[in-house]
Hints:
By secondary structure, this protein is an alpha/beta fold. The chain contains 8 helices and 9 strands.
Amino acid sequence: MNEISNKVINRLTLYHCILKYTMKESEFISSFEIADLLNLDNSLVRKDIALCGVLGHKKQGYSVTELKGAIEEKLGFSERKEIFIIGAGSLGSALVKYVDFKDYGIDILALFDNDPQKIEQDVNGKKILPLSKLENSISRISVKNIILAVPAEHAQEVTDYAVHCGVRFIWNFTPAVLRVPKSVTVYYENIISSFMQMRNA
């Protein structure tokens, strides 16, 4: 994927959602329609679409199929990204059941947990393995990415262990701010921040 800013990536994924779900019965869509749905400036939408190399059709707008495919190619949806989930509680189990991950190249291989009562259970076709097997699993199939979905009070301890095992990318669904080496990237899924923005809108 060519280097583009996180803000553009965020907008392009929203455009893709519109094309996939809102406009699935339409053949064409205009930048004005997208801008109106997302409360964005039309010129910004057109600039983003231009990055994908798609040209509009006079008096019709953009082909929904063509634009959707171009966004998928630009963002690398076809590139398979294997990932483990650490934490097989309510959140981790819900994430592994989110079927749309596959459409975006995210392939969840297994869940890991420390609760003996959960070990070897099956969640949406994925096994829950003991956390102690994480290092062996990473070594065997070279997965460097995890979703962290453990209780906040255990987040740093689990992170330290995951980094020791070879994890290099952490998608953090906990409210904890993590201390990691510079070689490790953490992305925060800040649900509270999103709620506060909504509440104060």
